[in-house]
Amino acid sequence: MDTEVFIARQPILDRDQSLVAYELLFRRKMSENVAGAVIDDMTVTAQVLDNALNNVGIDKLVGKNLAFVNCSYDFLVSDILYALNPEIFVLEILETVEIDENIVQMVKGFRDKGYVIAIDDFVPSAEEYERIAPLIPYTSIVKLEFSAITINDVKMAVEFFHKKNIKVLVEKVETEADFKECFKLGCDLFQGYFFAKPEMLKESKIDSDAIGTFEIIKAINSDSDIDKVESMFKGHPQLSVNLIKYLNTAAFATRMQVTSIKHAISLLGYSNLKRWLLILAYANKGNMSRKSPLLSSALYKATFFESVARTVKLDNVIVEKAYLMGLISNLSAIYKISLELMLSQISLDSSINEALLYRKGILGKILELDYYLERDDINGTEKITDELGLSTQALSECMLKACEVSCAEEK
C-alpha cells in the first residue's frame, strides 16, 4: 500500500493576539488505486513526526513557538513520545482516549518529565468533568470547541479550570466578535480564523504610505528599473526615511553612509527590499510584531502561493502575481475594512483582484486550495490538487517551504 502523508498547521494565539503555538495536523491521501484502505492514527502520526523531526526539522515548522501534537491511546502508552522535546511539544490527549489507570500513570510520567499536557475537545458536562478528573492534576491546558458549546458552558469551564491553574484554549473561533466574547469570559488561548476576518469600520482606510508600500512591491515584482523604484520612494517621504533608518540599524554588520535612495535600494537588493516592505506594511498598523499571526500568515501564503504556481509550471509572471496575492491577502484584516474597499484603494493587476474577490482564473484556484487546506476540507483539497495536477508530495513540499519562510521571519 502506498500512503502519502503531509503536515498542516493551525496557529494558536494568546490574549494579546500574539502567535505562541501551532497545532500540527496530520493529513494523508491514499494511492488512487487503493479503495477503502485504512491506516491507523498512530502510524500516520508517527510517520509525520518522523518527517518533521528527521527530514524537515521542527524549527522549520513552528519556529520558536510550541507545537501541539494529537495523541491517541496507543501513542500515549508507547515510547515514541519520549523522543519529542518537552520544551517544544504539547501533548494533546484526544477526546477518544479512554482514561484508565494506565493512561493516568503515563500522563503523570510525561508531566514529571516536563511535558505540557492538554486535553482536546472538552465538552462541559457532569459526565465529562468526572471523566477527566484523574488527569486534572497533570493538565495545563483544556481545549473547548467554541462552536459546539454555549457561552455559559465557556464561562463555567473557565471558572472551574482557572481554580485548578489550568488554561482554557478555545478553538474554532471564527470571527472577531467570537474572540472578544471569549476574551471577556477569561479564555487564555485562541485557535481559529478570527484574525483573518475583520470587524468592519466604515471610516477605516488604508493610509497613503501603506498604499505606496504595495505599489512599490508591485513595481519590484514587475522588474521595474531602479530609477522607477527610486521615484516611487520619493513620492512617499516617510517610507524613504524608514528605509534609511533600517539600513543604519544593527540588522547590518557594517554600516555604510547612504548617499541616495537609489544607493539604499541597491544596498538592500530587490529581494530583501520586498521582504522589508511587507514587514513595514503590517508593522505600521497597530505596532504589529513579527509574532503577529497576520504577518506570519501573509508570509506563509505568499510563499505557498508562489511555490504552488511554480510547481505546476505556470509562467514567471503568474508566479510573481501569486506571491503578491499572498502578500496582500490579510491586509483587510489589519485595517478592518472589507476586501472590496481594500482592493479599491490599492492598484493591483485585474487577475489578482478577480482571484481575491471571485476566485476566478488559475490564481483563484490556488487561493481556493489554501481555503480548503485551512478548513481541513480534505475532499475540497483533493478536488483542487487534481485540477491543478499537484501531487500530495508536491503539495507537502510547498507547505513545508512556506512554513520554513514564515517561521524564519519570526526569529
Question: What report would you give on this structure?
Answer:
With 411 residues, the chain is of the alpha/beta class. It folds into 2 domains: 3-195, Alpha-Beta Barrel (TIM Barrel); 208-410, Hypothetical protein af1432 (Orthogonal Bundle). The chain has helices at residues 41-56, 58-62, 73-76, 101-112, 126-132, 151-163, 176-184, 208-221, 226-234, 237-247, 261-268, 270-283, 293-311, 316-328, 331-335, 339-345, 350-358, 361-374, 378-388, 392-410, and strands at residues 3-13, 19-30, 66-71, 89-93, 116-119, 141-145, 167-173, 189-192. The chain has an 8-stranded mixed beta barrel with strand order 1-2-3-4-5-6-7-8, surrounded by 5 helices.
Report the count of strand segments.
8
CATH architecture of the largest domain: Orthogonal Bundle
Globular, elongated, flat, extended or rod-shaped: what is the shape?
A: elongated
How many structurally independent domains?
2
CA-based gyration radius:
23 Å
- Secondary structure: helix percent: 40-55%
Report the CATH superfamily of the largest domain.
Hypothetical protein af1432
Q: What topology, given as strand order, has the largest sheet? A: 1-2-3-4-5-6-7-8
